[in-house]
Amino acid sequence: MEIPELAELIWLFEAEPTAEFDDLEWPVGLFSFWLARGDQAVSFSLDPTAGEAYISLYAGEHEHTHLGRIRRLDRLTVVRGPGGYEGLRLWPPDDTDEAITLQTKPRISLSWNVKELGSW
């Protein structure tokens, strides 16, 4: 899986990740980033070796959206755009039009395309 440098992810989430297990170092194991903007927050967890990611969005202390065990990712890209836009795109293998987009700035949001039933 192709991923940005750890320094880029730290820049995007404005903090270093926490490891699930203290004896493992990046990029081996599950690492979690946390970012809050006002009453919105996101938890982004990534296991680069396994190619899995998890995303949870929060309003206050309540989780309202969770994408768990996003598997078989091909690559992650950090995106910077006009108006101070910052985010992360998660790309599945061989599917350049269907990225999951996690916006981290100026606000936190999550979007993805849903395929029609039977189109797999």
Structure write-up:
With 120 residues, this protein is mostly beta strands. Helix content is 7%, strand content 46%. Strands 1-2-3-4-5 form a 5-stranded antiparallel beta sheet, covered by helices on one side. Strands 6-7-8-9 form a 4-stranded antiparallel beta sheet, with helices on one face. It is globular and about 35 Å long.
Q: List SSEs in N-to-C order.
A: HEEEEEEEEE
Radius of gyration: 14 Å
Helix vs. strand class: mainly beta
Q: What is the helical fraction, as a range of percent?
A: under 10%
Helix tally equals: 1
Strand order of the largest sheet: 1-2-3-4-5
Major beta sheet summary = 5 strands, antiparallel
Mean pLDDT: 91
Strand content: over 45%
Query: Unreliable runs, pLDDT <50, ≥5 residues?
Result: none
Quick one: overall form? globular
Termini separation comes to: 22 Å
Number of beta-strand segments: 9
Give the helix/strand layout.
Elements: H1 6-13, E1 18-19, E2 31-37, E3 40-47, E4 52-59, E5 62-70, E6 75-80, E7 86-91, E8 100-105, E9 109-111
Antiparallel strand pairs: 1-2, 2-3, 3-4, 4-5, 6-7, 7-8, 8-9
What features would you highlight for this structure?
120 residues, mainly beta, five-stranded antiparallel β-sheet, four-stranded antiparallel β-sheet, 1 helix, 9 strands, 7% helix, globular
Structure, briefly:
With 120 residues, this protein is mainly β.
